[in-house]
């Protein structure tokens, strides 16, 4: 069994890239989920609108 010293000490965790568009999408998802929770009969229409909106966001960002 060999024991090697740790050179350089502990490494900090890698930073995850969070940009403004990601925060905006998460905020919109939270608002839409809350709206679907408040009115369950509109959940299907709200979900479909969200899917179309997410597709547009992906197309416009890429």
Helices and strands in order:
Blueprint: H1 20-38, H2 43-61
Keywords: Membrane, Transmembrane, Transmembrane helix
Transmembrane segments: 20-37, 42-61
Descriptive notes:
Helices cover 61% and strands 0% of the residues. The mean pLDDT is 77. The longest helix is centred in the middle third of the chain and has 19 residues, at 20-38. The protein starts with 19 loop residues before the first helix and ends with a helix. With 62 residues, the protein is mostly helical. The relative contact order is 0.10. It has 2 helices and no strands.
Descriptors for this entry?
2 helices, 62 residues, mainly alpha, 61% helix
State the helical fraction: 55-70%
Indicate the overall shape: elongated
Number of strands: 0
- Beginning-to-end CA distance, first to last residue: 51 Å
Major beta-sheet overview: none
Mean pLDDT: 77
Count of helical stretches: 2
What structural class do the secondary elements suggest?
mainly alpha
**Taking Cα atoms only, what radius of gyration do you get, to the nearest Å?**
21 Å
Uncertain runs are none
- The SSE order reads HH
Sheet-strand content, in percent, reads under 5%
């Amino acid at each position: 069994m060999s024991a090697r010293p740790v050179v350089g000490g502990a490494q900090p965790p890698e930073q995850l890239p969070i940009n403004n568009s990601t925060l905006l999408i998460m905020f919109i998802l939270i608002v839409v989920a809350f709206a679907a929770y408040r009115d369950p009969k509109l959940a299907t229409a709200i979900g479909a609108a969200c899917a179309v909106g997410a597709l547009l966001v992906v197309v416009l960002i890429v």
